[in-house]
Design brief:
The complex is a heterodimer of chains A (513) and B (346).
Chain A (H helix, E strand, L loop, with lengths): L13 E12 L2 E12 L3 E5 L6 H8 L7 E6 L2 E3 L4 H6 L2 E4 L11 H5 L6 E2 L2 E2 L1 H14 L15 H13 L5 E5 L7 H16 L3 E5 L3 H7 L2 E6 L2 E7 L5 H9 L17 E11 L7 E11 L3 E5 L6 H9 L6 E6 L2 E2 L5 H7 L1 E4 L3 H5 L6 H6 L7 E2 L2 E2 L1 H14 L16 H13 L5 E5 L7 H16 L3 E6 L2 H7 L2 E6 L2 E7 L4 H7 L7
Parallel strand pairs in A: 3-10, 3-11, 6-9, 9-10, 15-22, 15-23, 18-21, 21-22
Antiparallel strand pairs in A: 1-2, 1-4, 4-5, 7-8, 11-12, 13-14, 13-16, 16-17, 19-20, 23-24
Chain B lengths: L1 H5 L11 H7 L1 H16 L6 H26 L7 H17 L1 E3 L4 E3 L3 H24 L5 H20 L20 H4 L1 E2 L2 E2 H19 L1 H11 L1 H6 L4 H27 L10 H11 L11 H20 L4 H23 L7
Antiparallel strand pairs in B: 1-2, 3-4
Helix pairs in contact in B: 3-14, 4-9, 4-12, 4-13, 4-14, 5-6, 5-7, 5-12, 6-7, 6-12, 9-10, 10-12, 13-14, 13-15, 14-15
Classes of the chains: A alpha/beta (513), B mainly alpha (346).
């Protein structure tokens, strides 16, 4: 049983509301009829796992994208925003999760980008600079407005992003993960600013993965799961346990880790692996990390965004270079091998971002499935059509891709089926070790369950699986062993009987700012 | 479960639509239209001899366009082919005049086959330089090939001091005759240059549709990161396509100088743009991953037959430029209709 999403009457006036808002991308339903209220002068926090539809809902409310159906009601009247500028003119602004700054421009120019203050002789730079200085003082940040944004560290860039939203004097301010790169003291300042704003009657929508941090500031909580609102409550009625239960859901079960088989030899062994920040930062994204994985074993790597999980997997797969340490596959050191050679030895990676790293959008479903195993159906100079077709058909059957046929365009599939194609492509290489980086992102619960079933079956046949995720529930339903990563290191290791709260605590998630 | 997943749904079968047919076969219909219109306007257009002459003109652009197609499929661009064409012609010309070995005090007159091989090797080398700059040193393709375009043209001018080699026929007593075979001779009534183009097109078509390399090329052009993670040697693919493009430019240079029986350092200026136009008219996407040899050949013939047709009916060459430009813009417009999902908000 989940809480029935009921909007309880609230004393504060509703300034902006979403009514039955839905958004689909082709066959992918990001939002399925969501109701959402924003109250004057209060903070409403939106909770949900990755892919639950939080960012989509916020983008709709701020006019960045348009809903497929449903309506937006501002001050009691239905409105339609064609773009974010129209929403901004009506007093709604958004701080995006991904920074949207021009790195080559100064802090001042970024804050006033697109709505420069005009004087008689063009842009009034002096006035802009004065206002930028005032905003920086308000945020207690020692940043000169003339500094180029690219010279600031990530946290300071986020401050600039916040300052830009504040500079508009909006009535409704949407903050999508505003604190992901901020230090604890910066978060304190931000919260002070939020309290000042709400005292002035500004409404705030707040999204954060730091659950306890969000609990400090919020007046209302709304939980989204798989594009639907699952729970709503005012601050008084919620605690951490309530949020996690509604986020993850307890009315469905993704199954439990595969049982009844004996693990084999160590298939993959990582020794003191260190990877420098590919973006040139001072800290190592993977820091002297060691782990062993046996044949038939499913290990879940849990961690927040930026914990170093993706970098770890990409280094093992051969995309990134390690600065030190070694990777041993079935007893042989493979650090010097290319990606193709590692695939040939039986090591496969299903990358995190399937659109960017997993699929070739210009190719058909069949060509995508066979892409990683071309050598297996090439004889002499030419590829063998029959052998390729057999491989594709077997693959479609194995991972149960719902498609009109191998010649269908890859874009015609739903997100879940696209993900199955990426997994099927790597399974077709007959790997001994497969690493999956957030494979459940943006796919619905049914597809998730099918992926889990598939992995469980493969594990029973002796495949070693590394499953990386930022969703705790998944770890518990698939993994024999759970490794928690935090700042490039293993911060804890559990067996599958551990509680969700313990895992989250080890990742640094529920530690208050 | 498996039965249903493989079952073809009715929706996958595209309903017959005239608009779709016209859109997808646009280069073919454009060619038919051009031939029909000019045949109506001039009695000399629709004759076998005229078609063969026009085809031998198309051969130059066509050979360049095949190389350009490979590069564009990879998501790149090769601006250097016109200059490489000229440089190759000049090198072939210089080799035909004899190479003086001062240390030995002799002048070597390499036979024609050796001239052809050396020239192709030179074109491949220039192309490989492009490829290495782009794949290893991450120079944007546009800039790298633009630079090489200037350098190759400059070297061609330096070698000849701006002059043209006119004597390419060789001398019987030196055993290096036969250079004009490429441009003048015919096999079964068909010019050799057209046969060379046909052979190159067939080989390239086979490579793209049947070989592992072809699949690598489409994959790395469609999404280089995904191809890389699937074990495709994306850098090797990149260097190979630029090398092939350079080599084909050298072949085009040999054919052109053989047709003209002279090799000048200013030959082939702006030919790279004609080659790009042929590829685009043929339906390839400049973003990479989409395009076929068949389309590119149609594109080359559309451009060639259009400009020759305008000459035959006596339209000013200035108008030819205008027409060609209009056809290119129209083709790109069609491409964005076919591949785009409607206009996107910026």
């Amino acid at each position: 049983m989940t809480d029935v999403p009921q909007q309880k009457p609230d004393l504060a006036e509703v300034v902006l509301a979403a009514r039955n808002v839905a958004k689909s991308y082709g066959n992918v339903h990001a939002l399925k009829g969501v109701n959402f209220d924003i109250h004057r002068g209060q903070v409403t926090t939106l909770f949900g796992e990755n892919g639950a539809g939080k960012s989509t809902l916020m983008k709709i409310l701020s006019g960045v994208i348009q809903p497929t159906s449903g309506e937006i009601i501002l001050d009691g009247k239905p409105v339609a925003f064609n773009n974010s500028t129209e929403a901004r003119d009506r007093g709604i602004s958004i701080i995006h999760q991904e920074l949207s700054l021009a790195p080559n421009l100064s802090v001042r120019d970024n804050i006033f980008m697109g709505r420069e203050i005009m004087g008689p002789t063009g842009v009034d730079f002096a006035e802009e600079e004065r206002q930028a200085r005032r905003l920086m003082a308000e945020l207690e940040e020692d940043i000169d407005p003339l500094t180029p944004v690219e010279e600031l560290r990530l946290g300071q860039q986020q401050i600039v992003e916040i300052a830009r939203a504040l500079s508009v004097d909006s009535r409704i301010l949407i903050m999508d993960e505003p604190t992901s790169a901020l230090s604890a003291s910066e978060v304190e300042v931000l919260f002070k600013v939020i309290r000042d704003l709400t005292a002035k009657g500004v409404s705030i929508v707040y999204i954060s993965h730091h659950l306890e941090e969000a609990l400090q500031i919020t007046d209302h909580a709304v939980v989204l799961r798989d594009g639907t609102m699952t729970a709503y409550a005012p601050r008084g009625g919620i605690d951490l346990e309530w949020i996690v239960r509604n986020m993850v859901g307890d009315n469905y079960d993704l199954g439990s880790p595969p049982e009844g088989h004996v693990f084999g030899e160590v298939a993959l062994s990582v020794r003191d692996l260190t990877v420098a920040d590919p973006k040139g930062g001072a800290f190592n994204v993977v820091d002297r990390l060691s782990l062993d994985l046996r044949a038939g074993e499913v290990v879940c790597i849990y961690g927040l965004m930026g914990a170093g999980r993706t970098e770890l997997l990409e280094t093992v797969a051969g995309r990134l270079r390690a600065s030190s340490g070694e990777v041993v596959l079935e007893g042989r050191e493979i650090s010097h091998l290319s990606i193709a050679e590692r695939i040939a030895r039986g090591l496969a990676l299903v990358p995190e971002d399937r659109q960017r790293d997993g699929l070739v959008q210009t190719m058909s479903v069949g060509e995508n499935l066979s892409l990683a195993s071309i050598a297996s159906f090439t004889k002499g100079l030419f590829t063998q059509k029959k052998a390729e077709r057999a491989l594709i058909d077997a693959s479609i059957r194995e991972v149960t891709v719902k498609t009109s046929g191998p010649a269908a365009a890859i874009g015609s599939l739903s997100g879940g089926n696209q993900q199955k194609v990426v997994i099927g492509k790597m399974l077709a290489t007959k790997p001994r070790v497969i690493m999956l980086d957030e494979p459940s992102r943006g796919i619905d619960i049914g597809a998730k369950a099918e992926v889990f079933k598939l992995l469980a079956e493969e594990a029973k046949r002796g495949l070693a699986v590394i499953y990386s995720t930022s969703e705790v529930g998944e770890c518990l339903s698939i993994a024999h062993r759970i490794i928690v990563m935090h700042k490039g290191r293993i911060s804890a290791e559990f067996d599958s009987n551990v509680s969700k709260e313990k895992i989250m605590a080890a990742s640094g998630e529920s530690v208050a700012a | 479960m498996s039965d249903t997943t493989l079952a073809r749904t009715a929706a996958a079968k595209p309903a017959f639509s005239l608009g779709r047919l016209l859109l997808e076969g646009r280069a073919f219909f454009a060619l038919i239209l051009i031939v029909a219109v000019f045949s109506f306007l001039s009695p000399n257009y629709f004759t076998v001899s005229n078609f063969l002459i026009m085809a031998s003109h198309v051969a130059i652009y066509g050979i360049l366009a095949v190389g350009m197609l490979l590069v564009i499929l990879n998501g790149g661009i090769d601006l250097s082919v016109g200059s490489v064409l000229a440089l190759s012609g000049v090198i072939a010309g210089a080799l035909m005049q004899g190479v003086e070995m001062q240390a030995l005090g002799v002048i070597l007159y390499p036979p024609v086959w050796a001239v052809v091989v050396l020239t192709c090797a030179l074109g491949a080398l220039v192309g490989a330089v492009n490829g290495v700059l782009i794949a290893w040193f991450k120079v944007p393709a546009f800039v790298a090939t633009l630079g090489v375009m200037y350098v190759a043209r400059g070297v061609a001018l330096l070698m000849t001091n701006g002059l043209t080699y006119n004597n390419l026929s060789g001398r019987p007593e030196l055993g290096n005759t036969g250079f004009d075979w490429l441009g003048f001779n015919r096999l079964a009534g068909i010019p050799i240059s057209v046969l060379v183009l046909a052979a190159i097109a067939v080989l390239a078509g086979l490579m793209l549709s049947r070989s592992a390399f072809g699949r690598w090329l489409y994959a790395s052009g469609g999404n280089e990161r995904a191809a890389d993670l699937s074990g495709v040697p994306v850098k090797r693919v990149k260097i190979t396509v630029y090398t092939l493009s350079g080599m084909l430019a050298a072949v085009a240079g040999l054919v052109l100088s053989s047709q003209l029986t002279s090799a000048g350092p200013t030959a082939g200026t702006t030919y790279e743009l004609t080659a790009i136009a042929a590829v685009v008219i043929g339906g390839a996407a400049l973003t990479g991953g989409r395009g076929t040899v068949r389309g590119t050949m149609l594109g080359a013939f559309v451009i060639g037959f259009l400009s020759d047709g305008l000459v035959i009916i006596g339209v000013s060459s200035y108008w030819q430029t205008v027409f060609t430009g209009a056809v290119i813009v129209l083709a790109v417009l069609m491409n964005s209709i076919q591949y785009g999902k409607g206009p996107r908000k910026g």
